[in-house]
Design a protein that fits this description.
Blueprint: H1 4-33, H2 40-48, H3 50-72, H4 75-78, H5 85-97, H6 103-119, H7 125-134
Helix pairs in contact: 1-3, 1-5
Length: 151
């Protein structure tokens, strides 16, 4: 069992891993298909590409992990975390495909990281705890996790 203080980072890590994997599998599919016009042959090539099926499975895993995150964290607090894939995808594409990350994208990545840090789910832990203390005990989830900050 994962300690309560690690649940949220683990869920976010899983989300980023499968979301990044999805994008990498999409790119692998694109490279496998090559320069084909949209046509029945294109759709057939997509359907026959193993990377395409990996992308579909990972897309579902991204969906499932996002639902798990939202089970414990309000959308407004959790959504900024999705922008972290703007960090992980370029890094993975650099490592796997040798794609470059220029100065301007690197600055954008730095700004995204700063923004997530500023508006992320733990930006207002006292507010979350105060709001949670005001709730009746019956509304606490059966997992014992009280709020996004408690994950």
């Amino acid at each position: 069992m994962i300690a309560a203080s690690l649940r949220f980072p683990v869920l976010v890590g899983i989300y980023l891993l499968v979301d990044t994997g999805t994008q990498i599998a999409f790119e692998a599919t694109s490279r496998a298909i090559g320069d084909m016009p949209i046509s029945p042959a294109f759709l057939q090539a997509v359907a026959q590409s193993p990377a395409s099926w990996v992308a579909a499975l990972l897309y579902f895993a991204t969906y499932a992990s996002w639902i798990l995150i939202l089970k414990y964290c309000p959308l407004g607090k959790a959504f900024p975390l999705t922008t972290l894939s703007y960090v992980t995808v370029p890094l993975a594409s650099w490592l796997i495909f040798g794609e470059g990350v220029g100065l301007v994208p690197a600055l954008g990545i730095a700004l995204i990281l700063a923004g997530v840090w500023l508006i992320g789910p733990e930006a207002e832990p006292n507010e979350a705890k105060t709001a949670e203390q005001a709730k009746p005990a019956a509304s606490t989830p059966s997992t014992g996790v009280k709020s996004c900050a408690d994950l």
